[in-house]
Amino acid sequence: MIPPSGMSRLQTFPHEMLREIYEQPDAIRRTLALYLADDQLKPEVESLLATWPNSAGEILIAASGSSRHSGLAGEILLEDLCGLAVDVEYASEYSCRGGKDPKDMRHPSVLVLSQSGETSDTLAALYEARRRGQRTLAITNVSSSTMAGVADVSMPLAAGVERAIPATKSFTCQLTVLYLLALYEGVRLRRIDSAELASYIKQLQALPNLIQAQLAGWRQTMAALAGKYSSAATFLYLGRGIHYAIAREGALKLKEASYVHAEGYPSGELKHGPNALVSDRTPLVVLATVDQDLSASVLRYEKTLQLLSDMRAQGAKVIAIANHGDTQAKGLAGDCIYVDPVSEYLLPIQEVIPLQLFAYFMALEHGVDVDRPRNLAKAVVEK
Fold first, then answer.
1. Would the N or C end of the chain have less CB density within 10 A of its end CB?
2. How far is Cα 66 from Cα 378, in angstroms, rounded to an integer?
3. Tell me, what DSSP letter sits at residue 282?
4. Rounded CA gap, 111 and 215, in Å?
């Protein structure tokens, strides 16, 4: 997948974004190696993270752009697996809020997420958290970044250099590290026992190979769908629970890579206003995956099938992402993209990748320089 040493990066892939999408299995493997050894959580990381938590079990996540979307997924992970109370803020808003007396405010531990570790809004949020005396944790792709140095604890990614402006491999590595953080916290809080931990780690370690085996098929399918839907004026991306974060991320990728408008919504909110937009030129992208071993996931899936049925009756154009072998979703959606069935909390790492590829091929359809979209920069710095 990765060009041999000495070969130009672009001799194998026509764009950096596509190359970085294909690098995700290896990026995830490298990131896992930072935190796992001999199929176990590394004790030195466990000791480091033990200094970070808030005694009341409260966490505030501050981030921007794609990193905020990974934070939304992290909120679900830390609440569902660890029983923690988590809020997610836009970093640009967090640093501008506060009462007259910070002593009157809650004091959660603060987690900041940034690909570069230099995003100015997120860095401002980190400094504000430090000013308030809150414990801080930074997840960045650059271990020598300002955020990694300023925060009390750093959890680096090993995604490698990401040259395309639209985040791809850094996003899936953020999801991976947030999953690992939830495992460390779950063990510390005795919410995850040894048998559950072994199962979670086994599934996580198998994920890169699953992704690698599906990339070629996703690439072919999403290229065809981009051609089919290239004339659409806007897209509505829909997901429930942890998958809402992926709906948001899929919509953002489409906007920044191809200049095609898109919005991400919780699936249940479609009929509370946005459905007025649905037309021949406004297709839906619906996340319809399921973990059959988790009752909450099955309930979410059943509600999603009902939505697909309603949209079919309405005449909407629908692209669904579903599990391999799912005949129900296939029968209700105009087009279906398949991912391997895995646990509820690992599905997002898989299902976002076809959405990244869709954004890439939509950019090609619209003649956009996908690696360098207009008006965007890799690290956003306030002027």
1. C
2. 12
3. B
4. 31
235 forms bridges with which residues in the sheet?
A: 262
The size of the chain, in residues, is: 383
What 8-state DSSP symbol labels residue 277? G
304 CB contacts (<8 Å, ≥6 apart)?
A: 240, 267, 286, 287, 288, 329
DSSP 3: P
Record the pTM.
Answer: 0.94
CATH code of 298's domain? 3.40.50.10490
Q: Beta 261-266 vs 234-239: how paired, if at all?
A: parallel
CB-based contacts of 285, cutoff 8 Å, min separation 6: 235, 236, 237, 238, 247, 250, 262, 318, 319, 320, 321, 355, 358
Nearest Cα neighbor of 356 from 175, 209, 139, 169 is 169
Angle subtended by helix axes 65-82 and 242-258, to nearest 10: 170
**101 HSE (CA, 13 A, CB side):** 2
**Integer Cα distance of 38 and 204 in angstroms:** 13
Does residue 242 share a domain with residue 102? no
d(Cα 111, Cα 350) in Å, to the nearest integer? 24
pLDDT digits (tens, 9 = 90+) for 140-176: 999 999 999 999 999 999 999 999 999 999 999 999 9
Residues 219 and 344 occupy one common structural domain: yes
**Residues 121 and 241 grouped into a single domain:** no
Domain encompassing residue 142: 9-192
